[in-house]
Design brief:
The protein is mostly helical. The chain contains six helices and two strands. A two-stranded antiparallel sheet has the order 1-2.
């Protein structure tokens, strides 16, 4: 039986399995499955990069939502064009009513899109500043209604916000 050292570890030729071509080493660390051990040796993942990315994504989605107001303004413009057309008087009250509906829907839709986009931009600011945890969580839930991009952003935001490390970041500021 031969005993020797390889580097700083001792090797014992008696531990070689029959037919094995290598030398086995004894180590406490090698006998543990990967990922087990003292939880203090694994630092908690830093969530500040995730929050920064979510903030930027909320800025972008808020801008796109506010940009949708142009579609509703076009809708209001069409209603105004119907009302201003020379044939509007021949239709009687029907043309005025249809154009009024177009104008009202267009203006209300544009105001809603601008307000909703502003809330998303503010949520992006809150993600970056790490404040208003409840507002960020509510906006993440409401983002899920905005398919398909908002759903992805909302689910990812909820997943990040539910982590204890993220809650701790929001409580520090």
């Amino acid at each position: 039986m031969s005993k020797g050292t390889l580097g700083s570890r001792k090797c014992d030729s008696r531990r070689i399995a029959p037919g094995a071509a290598g030398i086995t080493f004894t180590s406490d660390r090698m006998n543990q499955p990967y990922g087990y051990g003292n939880p203090q040796q694994f630092p908690a993942p830093d969530q500040s990069g995730n929050l920064r990315g979510l903030g930027i994504a909320h800025y972008v989605l808020g801008g796109l939502t506010a940009l949708m107001s142009l579609f509703f303004l076009l809708y209001a413009f069409i209603g105004g064009a119907i009302l201003a057309s020379p044939n509007a008087g021949r239709g009687g009250n029907d043309a005025a009513m249809v154009s009024g509906i177009f104008i009202v829907i267009g203006i209300v839709g544009a105001l809603f899109c601008v307000a909703w986009g502003g809330l998303k931009v503010y949520a992006g600011y809150c993600f970056n500043a790490r404040k208003n945890y409840t507002f960020c969580f509510v906006m993440a839930c409401l983002d899920c209604l905005n398919m398909p991009i908002g759903t992805v952003l909302g689910v990812l935001s909820i997943l990040v916000l539910m982590k204890p490390e993220t809650k701790a970041l929001f409580q520090r500021t």
